[in-house]
Amino acid sequence: MRQQIRELLDRVLLTHAPGGWEQEMNAIVREELGRCNANVQCDPHDNIYVVFPGRESDRLSLVTAHKDENSLIVRKIDEDGKMWLDPIGGTRPTRFGEGPFDLITESEVIPGILHMGSTHSSELSGRIYKTKTQLLTWDMVYLDCKLDAGQLAQRGVGVGDRALVSRTRKTPTYLHDEYVAGYALDDKAAVAVLLLVARALAAEPPAHDVCVGITSAEEGGVSGGKYLCRTLQPHDFIAVEVGPVADEYPIQMNDQPVVLFKDGSYHYDHVLSRELIAAGTRQDIQCQRAVIRSFGSDSSLSAQHGLVGRPACICFPTENTHGYEVSTLGALENCVKILVEHFTNPGR
């Protein structure tokens, strides 16, 4: 499985998938799910999903990972071509620093540089001085493609276009064949997990109907997962996510997946959460348990809005969330094993 995980990560982590412009991920997801001999569907919210009929069809379980990533949207273009940005999702410029960024238009990707300003300056350069003395915000930095407003307009650039870290910085880093590092493991690494789960369910039918959903627009407000949940009305809803490693949590950076019992948005169903832990035990995998803050998932936000009865969330331990993220390949593999066990042999 290690090689399969790496091959998928090498593909998905190089894509550009800002919320609302996820075509590159869509192409990979459709291709991979299409190999599962299942009916690949796409809804008006750009969620892509397949339903695997179970040995019994008395209920539906939904399991999701989101394909979008943290990104920016152009809010203002100066005459000299400086582009000012608003975030889509919870990220800060300190997570990227000055460096290559890509501007995505309707027809092309234009390379640019995220600018903060020259360090060799004083308080007389007010904006730059703020970048040296205050917590960085997106109002202090700008994107520059070295094209003025007229040249940008000729190339179809306008307010509302997306920007995100350059593809030249997206090649994943592997450490000792144990760790993977890169931008947007949240949640593209989880997409890789679910593509492997889909392969397994295509080979061995689940006990009950299972929908594998690759959702859109999570970072900007979890709208894709809620839309899909409202449409399908599942009995259970499991999200696959990053598990933030931080001093305040008992999450250890190892190969043990994390089952959440509460996040910053809602509490998870204790019975379903324990069923996931039990599935891990049957596979000789010990799960970590956590209650975390400043976090929400497809399933917890759906439960908060009364769209599902039994939400759960399984995570892979991750450092530097919403930045240059690091996780373990073993945890990704173990998430696959637990989910396949849970769906094919529940309560065994």
Q: What does the model show?
A:
- With 348 residues, the protein is of the alpha+beta class.
- It has 2 domains: 2-69 and 184-344, Aminopeptidase; 71-169, Elongation Factor Tu (Ef-tu), domain 3, CATH 2.40.30.
- Helix content is 29%, strand content 29%.
- The chain has helices at residues 2-12, 23-34, 126-133, 149-154, 185-203, 223-232, 270-282, 298-304, 329-344; strands at 41-42, 48-52, 56-66, 71-77, 83-88, 99-104, 109-115, 142-144, 162-165, 173-175, 179-183, 208-215, 236-244, 258-262, 288-291, 310-319, 324-328.
- β6 and β7 (109-115) form a beta hairpin.
- α1 (2-12) packs across α5, α5 (185-203) packs across α9 and α6 crosses α8.
- The two termini are 24 Å apart.
Low-pLDDT segments? none
Compute the gyration radius: what is it? 21 Å
Give the C-level CATH assignment of the largest domain.
Alpha Beta
Q: Could you give the count of β-strands?
A: 17
The geometry reads as globular
Q: Separation of termini? A: 24 Å
Give the CATH architecture of the largest domain.
3-Layer(aba) Sandwich
Reported by name, the CATH topology of the largest domain is: Aminopeptidase
Q: How is the biggest beta sheet arranged? A: 11 strands, mixed
The pLDDT mean sits at 97
Please tally the helical runs, counting DSSP H or I stretches of 4 or more residues.
9
CATH H-level superfamily of the largest domain: Zn peptidases
Strand % is: 25-35%
Structural class: alpha+beta
Instruction: Compute the number of structural domains.
Output: 2
Helix content, binned percent? 25-40%
- Secondary-structure element sequence? HHEEEEEEEHEHEEEHEHEEHEHEEH
